[in-house]
Automatic annotation (TrEMBL):
The record marks 38, 137 as: Transition state stabilizer. It catalyses: 4-CDP-2-C-methyl-D-erythritol 2-phosphate = 2-C-methyl-D-erythritol 2,4-cyclic diphosphate + CMP. This is 2-C-methyl-D-erythritol 2,4-cyclodiphosphate synthase. Homotrimer. Its EC number is 4.6.1.12. SUPFAM superfamilies: IpsF-like (SSF69765). Its cofactor is a divalent metal cation. CDD domains: MECDP_synthase. It comes from Thermocrinis albus (strain DSM 14484 / JCM 11386 / HI 11/12). Signal peptide: none annotated. It comes from the Bacteria. The gene is ispF.
């Protein structure tokens, strides 16, 4: 039946700033700048969280974890992902695959790709073959000195 399959799309983007730690997909990236955000700024986990929430017709990350709430200041984005995963399971869905594209000129994603994929797979309790992460350069898409991420997820009724 058609309602047994759901697709979700998530997007996030933040500017890079000196002196902040950079995390992508929950992995610390060796880079002199980090992503400026209310939480830890992990655009990959934010986009992935929104994709999961969207696929199961739940409120988005901004509604669940508003940047106006001091409780979420500096929060680890894994908390957001865990809440989205809980909601997916409560609605009776399982994750078939995850596909994420990080858009940035710097830092390069390729050296961290496998580690990020493995970390996401572990966080989501998925086989790593179900998680794809790739990097693309901006090609004029977003502001210089920023990182954006698109994620798509496919859910099926368990």
């Amino acid at each position: 039946m058609i309602e047994d399959i759901r697709i979700g799309l998530g997007f996030d983007g933040h500017r890079l700033e000196e002196g902040l730690e950079l995390k992508l997909g929950g992995v610390k990236i060796d880079y002199p700048k980090g992503l400026k955000g209310h939480s830890d700024g992990d655009v990959l986990l934010h986009a992935l969280t929104d994709a999961l929430l969207s696929a199961c017709k739940e409120p988005d990350i901004g509604q669940l974890f508003p940047d106006t709430d001091p409780m979420w200041k500096g929060a680890d984005s894994r908390v957001f992902l865990m809440e989205a995963l809980k909601r997916v399971k409560e609605k009776g869905y399982m994750i078939m695959n995850v596909d994420c594209t990080v858009v940035a000129d710097e830092p390069r994603i390729a050296p961290y790709r496998k580690l990020i994929e493995e970390n996401i797979a572990q966080l989501m309790e998925l086989d790593p073959c179900r998680v794809s992460v790739k990097g693309k350069t901006r090609e004029g898409f977003c502001k210089d000195d920023s990182v954006a991420c698109f994620c798509v997820v496919l859910l099926v009724k368990a």
